[in-house]
Fold this protein.
Amino acid sequence: MEQSEKMPVGSEARDSIATLDCIQPPGTCQVIAVLAPGPVRKRLFALGFVPGAVVEAVRAAPLGDPVEYRVKGCNISLRKEDAHLISVTAGGT
């Protein structure tokens, strides 16, 4: 049996899950989960990075870090280490 035959139906959707730091400007995605611990998780939720929110990568700083994101009408800059804690799917709705 080939590996593609062993995969359950719907695995294509799981393959598109990435972290927010992988989305390059200009790009859009949708938040799936925030995997940050305690206070960082609370801060990210307060900034609007809640499951289901559509996030647009607007632009990156000249050296690539931080990246500016638009979420719920607000522009927010996040360092890549913080953006890495947010699971997303490519292409927001």
Confidence is low (pLDDT under 50) at residues 1-14. The chain has one domain: 16-90. The helical segments are 3-6, 11-15, 38-46, 80-83. The beta strands are 17-19, 27-34, 54-60, 67-71, 74-78, 86-90.
